[in-house]
Amino acid sequence: KLNSLNNLKQRKTVTKDKKRVMLSANIGTHNDATTALKNGAEGIGLYRTEFLYMNSDRLPTEDEQFQSYKTVLQRMKNKPVIIRTLDIGGDKQLPYMQMPKEDNPFLGYRAIRFSLNKEDIFRTQLRALLRASNYGDLSIIFPMVSTLGEFRAAKSIYNEERQKMINQNQPVGKIKIGIMVEVPSAAILADQFAKEVDLMSIGTNDLIQYTMAADRGNNYVANLYQPYHPAVLRLIKHVIDACHHEHKPARMCGEMASDPIAMPILLGMGLDEFSMSSSSILKIRSLMKKLDTNKMAKLATKVVHSANTSEDVIEMVKSMVSFQY
Ligand code: PEP
Ligand code: MG
């Protein structure tokens, strides 16, 4: 079993009917890039940069960040790398920063909201990313974007830093700029976002909690945190369709991308890139080989049109996939 998974390491990901899908890795440190490659990752779909800031007793300097981003890009050779700007707040705190005490931290001062308020910290990170862009295929995504205004504001700060570097004759690579789709408002307006951003990645960990109004870490409401809920699945389909309408690949980097029940539905909806923990990649690659995308498209349609509950969805999936759970 292990041997046959090992054989899949250097292979591309293809379904039974030979459709190409991309499987990439979520990482938290630059050293994780090596593990990602060992597990057959075709790219980095999410580098969560907050660990650079959290595992320290002060803000990381521009140069420290540059080294870390450059390391990931170099190790991945020219495979695509998506780096997310600082996603702090919620349950993730910086011990050396005074943060306000909030009644609802997950609905509060987090992620891009923090970066747009602490422009100096944001600009430092963007400069480090711009410098690193010379070493590979880099995309940048902003976390927790709720409105187009936030995306535009963040992008214009990025453009200013980029222009400054060009004026100083510093080389900068071509970088794609986009967002995490993890707030329902962004998912609902995905058609509008898709026209403006270079890329979008669906962050289901947060999108589920905000859609169901159920804290992803709270055991008392864990029964409501339902990845297969038809409301969540319809929203995801809407985002995937919006990407395709603009001829852009649809991506996901939440835990759902590696969930064996959700994956066949996502494949059927036409999701192009699945990003997950490195340890899941080979297993998902081997499962995808057994699935026919046309059949999974029928499954996805059935789920979206006629499932009322998560239980309905699970039953539909089990009756239509060819592998055992
Ligand atoms: C997500 O919300 O799905 C996501 C990938 O981001 P994080 O888990 O870091 O919040
Ligand atoms: Mg998130």
Automatic annotation (TrEMBL):
Q: Which family does it belong to?
A: Belongs to the PEP-utilizing enzyme family.
The cofactors named for this UniProt entry are: Mg(2+)
Provide the E.C. number(s) assigned to this enzyme.
2.7.3.9
The organism's place on the tree of life at top rank? Bacteria
Tell me the stretch of the parent sequence this chain holds. 250 to 574 of 574
Q: Name one GO molecular function term.
A: kinase activity
Q: What is this protein called?
A: Phosphoenolpyruvate-protein phosphotransferase
Role = General (non sugar-specific) component of the phosphoenolpyruvate-dependent sugar phosphotransferase system (sugar PTS). This major carbohydrate active-transport system catalyzes the phosphorylation of incoming sugar substrates concomitantly with their translocation across the cell membrane. Enzyme I transfers the phosphoryl group from phosphoenolpyruvate (PEP) to the phosphoryl carrier protein (HPr).
| Organism in which the protein naturally occurs | Philodulcilactobacillus myokoensis
The catalysed reaction is: L-histidyl-[protein] + phosphoenolpyruvate = N(pros)-phospho-L-histidyl-[protein] + pyruvate
Kindly identify the residues recorded as the active site: 253
Query: What residues does Mg(2+) bind to?
Result: 182, 206
